[in-house]
Amino acid sequence: MSRSLGGAAVVGIGRSPFVRSSGRTTLSMAAQAAREALADCGLTAADVDGFTCYSTGDSAGPSQVAHAIGVDDLGWSLSVLGGGNIVTSTVAGAATAVLSGQAEVVVVYRVLGSQTRYGRALERVEVDGEGQFAGPHGYLVPPQWFAMFCRRHQYEYGSTAADLGAIAVQERDHAVRNPHAVARSPITLDDYLNSRWISEPFRLFDCCYEIDGAVAIVVTSAERAADLPHRPVHLLGAADSNRFGGSVDQWDDLSCMYSRDTAPRLWSRTGLRPADIDVACMYDCFTFTVMATFEDFGFCAKGEVGDYFRAGRATYGGDVVVNPHGGLLSEGYIHGLNHHYEAVLQLRGDAGDRQVRGAETALVTSGAGPFGGALVYGTAAP
Amino acid sequence: MTTTHGEPPAVGADPLSLPPQPVPDAVTAPFWAALADGRLAMCRCGHCGLWLQPPLERCRRCAGPTRFTDVAGTGTVYSFIVQHRATVPGYLDDLPYVVALVELDEQAGLRLPARIVGVDPAQVRCGLRVRAEFADLPGGDFTVAVFRPVDGP
Lengths: 382, 153
Ligand SMILES: [Zn+2]
Hints:
- The structure holds two protein chains of two kinds.
- Chain A is of the alpha/beta class.
- Helices cover 32% and strands 20% of the residues of chain A.
- The two termini of chain A are 15 Å apart.
- Chain B folds into two domains: 47 residues, no CATH class; 82 residues, no CATH class.
- The longest helix of chain B has 8 residues.
- At the A-B interface, strand 5, helix 4, helix 5 and strand 6 of A face strand 2, strand 6, strand 7 and strand 8 of B.
- Strand 5 of chain A pairs parallel with strand 2 of chain B, so a sheet runs across the interface.
- The structure holds zinc ion (ZN).
- Zinc ion binds next to loops of chain B.
């Protein structure tokens, strides 16, 4: 039996509109994304036998969404607890279900409604678990955790606000060409530097844009994919890593992230290296997440990300196009599943004005801090 | 270590003026009990001596029983943030405030998140030596350990 994910492919993609506040339920948005993803690949509810999503307990579940779009007998349903850290496991899990015969056609989705906003916690006043040690000090939400990482990187490697700004400006520049992006007005480095402090060293433009919306992708076997309308997008390999029980406070080296462990695992499993990647959809809950993981995946040395971006190496005509859709920073925060949508669009050659010419491979990363993962998609089966 | 008593919260105060309150469980309760008693104690394996944060009932290295043991209360700022926006309840009158990961002297990598007090935020640096002191957590039921620079900024 093959130990590769290469027998699985993404054949359909769908989404609901990305908006700041939708007034819709998570079930409505997830059902819309799932319907569109199936229509995209010419399949119907009758063809679907698997559904999976990840959430932090804030989402309509897989059985509900499958039922809502007319699936009568769902053979495989898996709800995964987690955020950006678990996206790779969820997508690779769907592929594994297909490859092991547990399901033939699986819809993977993530939906976020207005009740979910991770950047602030103004209603929650009691904290259990590990949060009970941090929360009473006014330290509770992700922008604070990853600002803590960023500060250590600045201390150890001399990275600067201008380096973070180079990432924010580049991603916004890409979003200008993306009709689905919620933030499409270009920004300059001065705009970045003049944006208000949130959790110093993070400013407003270091933080992703939290929105309402859903994304769904359809995973099936490469054999089945050959009969469907779009050029299949093959999974070439995936890897995850988890350390310190997910504790951001105890993670040993805040200048790097999970990707320190994921990268060698992923490159070894796929036989690829950074120079082989055409499109990199880097998980960007914050600018610094891009910086740390980009280094860890080996695109450049520690402390060189700012220069890399300023030299135009992370955009069209450079070494690798990072987040051509504008990422979570500018397209919007659908918890990283929108990165998979974009990777598929790019590898199909259907990305319109923002198409990366000749794109054959896409790295998609997910997660930040002590846990996360990444996978590689390709236009050709491995 | 010294104790700093904050002002008691006003009756009927806006709940957003109170910082998040801890919910101790069977394993963490001794941490909070020690603080209420004016001691900073961390979870430690009774067999191999490993310090464990967050605390565990049994040691993750040797499965030995653990107990809370007093620490010196001295350490080093590993990293820190300056919180400018009220994104979390509490300390609204203290903005901007500093939160650090303090690496305790007892063991490399043994860290506690805590507010840093008694220093201009602009003077805080990674590597700063700090010492714990005790403060009432606004809300009335808990004491927390905050840290102050040892030799001034
Ligand atoms: Zn032990």
